[in-house]
Amino acid sequence: MLKNIFAIFSQSLRNIKENISLASGYHLVLPSNNEEVTPTLAFGDGDTGFFESSDDVLFVSFGGGWKYSWSSSNFRSRTTFSFYLSTEGSSAASPVYCFYTDEDTGLGHAAADQLSLIAGGVEGQRVIEANSVIYNLFGVTEQDSVTDATTNGTTTITKAGENFLTTCAIGDIVLIWSGTTTADYGLYRVKAVTDDTNLVLDSSPSGSDSDVDFYVLRNGMIITAADGLVMSGTTKRWLTLRAEMDYTAQIAASKPTQVSIGVAKGFSMPIYSADNEELFFRETVPDRWDGVSDIIFHIKVALAAGEDVDDYFKFQLSWEHAVAGEPVPATSNDVEVEQAVLTGRNAQYDEYDVFFTIDHDIDGAGNEIQPHELLAARLRRIDATNPDITNEVIILNWHTHYQIDKMAAGS
């Protein structure tokens, strides 16, 4: 039995017709050729095999050229942009399956059952499986990652030691992806940030658990089979609807007076004096609305005649929402907006845009405006700050603007 073979052959080993055995505690050390044409440990005709290119780096040659490299940090191919497998721990920003010379682009692993698609060290897409549901996250910003939070069957989720006032904002998306009550997994929206340890969500997780894991996400898009496409932060967009006007009331009273400006039609509005000089609108709140932002009612108006600069006109929008299954309220919420006549915009038919903010949660928590509710409004022109303009104001158009965070079969 050989006790050691240590660089004793200057030529290849040939014509050995019996097994080579080493005594315990000894090992086989081959002479290091350190080049790809004749690798140290070769096979066949001698140009395919293994050699150590430098200390602790093993190369693999095929046909006299090295193709693969092994080291303590990676296993990779020789060709630029070919595969590179890192032995380092993976994350949402550090891929483990990547490309040689571009090692910050590839596939990473944010957590269990999560796959990250990374480009340039930035996570572009995350795929999460939670309770057999796949969530696709595109370009989101992870504001917070929380483990072992507590739910109690209400809309509040709690975790001591957090800093929610800094990391979270109304409208952020909460993705619950782990916890005892799997039925609670899914997407929620932040309705309020109570303090550093408590968030109020738009709906109630049913469980009373102390092991809830969730992400707080902002910007980007999330796609699921249940929710469709959900947007957050800077990716939210505006949906503009034209509320239905109640022409029946206008026709019955023959007021306000309809006027023409070229091919445009409008309604000429004097100051209201219990004389039917008002317009009524209604629409159904769309389910694409994010449910956490205020709604904007917009009218485009024109001066019926020339006016003095710095004179004023004023409109009042009275609105109310009707909760499904409950009596239509006889109350209303009044929003008043005043506009000064501006220099260079005081001639007949000069246009102005007037915006009314509809406070979606004016009635308090639990009574906010909801998708599919009736939203009704009445528009009047009222007395303005002196000096008031002399003539009437023409209503040319009207729209309602909703900030939307989802794509769905909305109303």
Could you please describe the fold and organization of this structure?
With 411 residues, the protein is mostly beta strands. It folds into four domains: 5-72, no CATH class; 83-125, no CATH class; 131-235, Elongation Factor Tu (Ef-tu), domain 3; 239-407, Jelly Rolls. The chain contains two helices and 33 strands. The protein has helices spanning 164-167, 247-253; strands at 5-6, 28-29, 41-43, 48-54, 57-62, 65-70, 74-77, 83-86, 97-99, 102-108, 114-119, 122-130, 133-138, 141-151, 156-158, 173-178, 186-195, 198-201, 212-218, 221-224, 228-231, 237-241, 244-245, 257-261, 264-269, 278-284, 295-303, 312-322, 333-340, 351-358, 374-382, 393-404, 406-407. Strands 3-4-5-6-7-8-9-10-11-12-13-20-21-33 form a 14-stranded antiparallel sheet, with no helix packed on it. A hairpin with a 4-residue loop joins strand 14 and strand 15. Residues 1-11 have low confidence and may be disordered.
State the separation between the terminal residues, measured CA to CA.
Answer: 87 Å
Give the helix proportion (percent range): under 10%
**According to CATH, what is the class of the largest domain?**
Mainly Beta
By DSSP, the count of extended strands is 33
Counting structural domains, the number is: 4
CATH architecture heading of the largest domain: Sandwich
Largest sheet: 14 strands, antiparallel
Helices, by number, come to 2
Structural class: mainly beta
**CATH-assigned fold name of the largest domain:** Jelly Rolls
Radius of gyration: 35 Å
Q: Which overall shape is indicated by the principal axes computed on the Cα atoms? A: elongated
Q: Unreliable segments (pLDDT under 50, ≥5 consecutive)?
A: 1-11
